[in-house]
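G., the chain you wanted modeled:
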Amino acid sequence: MHHDGRVHRDLSAHLSLDVTSPATLAFELAVSTQLVAQESLRITLDGAPVEVREVPDHHGTRLHVVQADVGRLVLDYSAAVRGRAAPVASDEADLLRYLRPSRYCESDTLGPTAHAEFAGLRGFDLLSAVSSWVGSRLSYVPGSSLPTDGAVQTLLGREGVCRDYAHLVVGLLRALDVPARVAAVYAPGLEPMDFHAVAEAHVDGAWHVVDATTLAPRSTLVRIATGRDAADSAFLTTISGRVDLVDMEVMAIVDELPNDDLDKLVRMH
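Predicted structure as tokens:
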């Protein structure tokens, strides 16, 4: 399926926000791939266009920064992605960055658990074991976790959403000296549709997707943002001021939805 690499994916996001105190906002919802055939981003405040600054970040992540006065802020984004990009290699600094504990992935605290459960495993066997272990021990419960919860709290609470699954996977892998990071993605096939978060682990010389939720086929994911954890990849960061999310709609479709072969390593293209 799609052996020629010409997979077609169409994506969109719509956000409505009430700005209740003048705010500086950073959005991360534009795709980071170079294979964008068409793309549109429009942000308005009470119907009037708002100036947007694009700021590049690691791994092609694109921050869109706006200054907004009090009012109703509406964002509409769409993109058509055609084909598969060649994955970008990581340098030594990247690999070191993604071995360290971070805000939501407390790999130092998780070390004893990781070594007790997965000692001796390497490569695909390790990724498969960690993914299935996390998937079997957590329950996917929308609204169950707080924005401040990290991997340790997720393991103790035994429930969460996609970012919580990704944080726990990343924390366990880093504890085993495997570079691991979080990617925010558009995920065709996800139900209900939303922004999605997955882990990526660096084994056998390349980054491979680990999604313990198994809610969407890994081969059709489209990268938005990549970083140490959700702090680097949230679709909205309120730098200053105050906003309330009123409405959000996300769409991601692919011309042909494949099955996800869990017996294979998958790289994000």
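The chain has two domains: 8-84+235-254, 92-231.

Shout if anything looks off.
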